[in-house]
Amino acid sequence: MSPTLSIAKKEFRAYFQSPIAYVFITLFLVLSVWIFFFLSNFFLVGQSTLRTLFDWIPITFLIFVPAVTMRTWAEEQKLGTAEILLTFPVRDWEVVLGKFLAGLAFLSVAILLTLPLTATVAWLGNPDNGAVIAGYVGSILLGAAYLSIGLWVSSMTQNQIVAFLISLVLCFILFIVGIPTTLSSLPDWLVPFVSRLSLGAHYDSIGRGVIDSRDVLYFLSIIVFFLFLNVQSIASRRWS
């Protein structure tokens, strides 16, 4: 087994060796159910759609994902275990990728646990399956982007609270930068460029039911970019 997968398996098991993981997943599911059935007045509206759930996923992830990533590197640096890990015969990128894959697997478990909501909608009506699938794909891509940002921020500090707050703010800025209110305050020549940088704009594009390769490439680029920054952060610490 490759070092990356070994690290990913170890980190994934570590999530569930602490009650924090179960608390996070429970809160995420309770919040999702509350938003879906009560905040959106699902039974009053009478529409077979998961649109409200996917509309709120970016907001719930803003809290959920930084809370998951804040301890990934920050705690290890505080306890001194990061230095021990980096003495193993593994490359920096293998460690970073392993931690990312573990976080992505954990996040995917939380997302897939919302499938009973999909089953409920399918039982009550006839939802657009393409939009549902695109919504889940977009949610996983957005969560992966948030994860890569959170991991990088966590590698820059030993304080988990600081890592959480900075990750939350950075993810929030990258998400809202392309909304009409933000764009209206910018010069016209800058609007197309800024709108293409928005996590929210690309997430909404996928959420409309069409998985465009440009949107997927954008999310992959964000993920690779912040994982690269994470590798550089770890490498600089190795040589310091």
Offer a concise description of the structure.
The chain has 240 residues and is mainly alpha-helical. It contains 14 helices and no strands. 79% of the residues lie in helices and 0% in strands.
Structure characterization notes:
The chain has 240 residues and is mainly alpha-helical. It has one domain. It is 79% helix and 0% strand. It has 14 helices and no strands. Helix 1 (3-16) crosses helix 7, helix 7 (92-112) crosses helix 14 (213-239) and helix 9 runs antiparallel to helix 13 (199-207). The radius of gyration is 19 Å and the shape is globular. The two termini are 30 Å apart. The mean pLDDT is 81.
Notable characteristics:
single chain, 240 residues, 79% helix
Order of helices and strands: HHHHHHHHHHHHHH
Provide the low-confidence segments as ranges: none
Total beta strand runs: 0
Give the total of domains.
1
Outline: globular
Overall helicity: over 70%
Based on secondary structure, the structural category is mainly alpha
What is the average per-residue confidence, as pLDDT, rounded to a whole number?
Answer: 81
**How widely separated are the two ends?**
30 Å
| Strand-residue proportion | under 5%
- The helix count comes to 14
Radius of gyration: 19 Å
| Main sheet makeup | none
